[in-house]
Model the fold of this input.
Amino acid sequence: MNLDIDRQHIWHPYTSITEPGPIFPVASAEGVMLTLDDGRQLIDGMSSWWCMLHGYNDSTLNQAIIDQTQKMSHVMFGGLTHEPAIKLAEKLVNITPAPLQHVFFSDSGSVSVEVSIKMALQYWHAQNKPEKKRLLSHSCGYHGDTFAAMSVCDPITGMHHLFSDLLMPQLFAEPPQCRFDEEWDEKYIADFKEKISAHHHELAAVIIEPIVQAAGGMRFYSPKYLQRVRELCDEFNVLLIIDEIATNFGRTGELFGCHHADISPDIMCLGKALTGGYMTLAATLCTDKVGQIICSGEAGVLMHGPTFMANPLACAVANASIDLLLNSPWQKRITSIQSQLTEELSECKNWPHIADVRVLGAIGVIELKQAVDMNVIQPQFVDQGVWIRPFGKLVYIMPPFIIKPEELSRLTQGMKTVINSIK
Done:
């Protein structure tokens, strides 16, 4: 594999082309294992950025794509439809919280967030309330890298402050301070309540990540907080957008993060694991009320239409992935992963250079007191035979659900060995 060509011509995510840092060529992948071009094998602790639920090269998902290629790899979705999209929409409506009824397919998680924001803005414009055009989000939140999505990410630490003068001005409440299993106190919702109370007249929607603030800090918060957000959105007549892109399809121990709080949003964003990691696909769901009001407005339609919307290959493999998940003992697997992560990472809590250790579902996080040097720490993980990609102060894993206990132990041991070496 010619890495010189890669270095000369490929721009990797969040990477400098003048000082690109180490990069590792992958020759193949099977199960939870990545095989590098030089023959080394790494246990994937990242599920390829949280999407590869069933591991790599799964025969069922492979076959779904092969079968679909014999019929139709792509067709425009304007004025046409097809069976994979119809089946997928039906599945998503059936498994997401009622009363979500309408599904808009797109290409990626960031675009699904863009669509959700357009939905919220058109919803109020159709009711002759164009002043309701801002969004309330959380500090330490992350919702994607496109422009509207960037505007609702953390304005200081959210990787997008360079664009702050160009982004839509949004409002931010302090991040939830209550841990997932902490006893509830109304003080935790006070700042959010103050913000929505003071600005509801100009707010189109609240957009938050349910239970887990993922790329913004891997913070796990109380389901009661999410319940109170839903109640306050209802009280102040503000739409609630739930960004489930990182939390959907079982990652937190429930099928969707909002299931922990037993609430339903007005709009929901799905992505990442929607196809089991095989192809890029996302979806934005909304209630019938939201859809009807949007379509009663000036435009009469939702103003969005991606070229590869509802790609048949992606929809076919998404159907197969959801069936594979729901027909598996996924909850038992997640419970086992959570128990093992809790046990094997617990010793790190006492290390002097560790700020926190936290586990929820199939997510394990070690937070250091100082940020790590990616160029130094990444090769050390590879030397341990594991693929773990930290950011900032966070060393975390989100393994595929099919991981075996001995493979998970190798991941946690690799985490501990490398982290202990940099104290």
About this structure: The chain has a mean pLDDT of 96. The chain is about 35% helix and 15% strand. The longest helix spans residues 109-125.
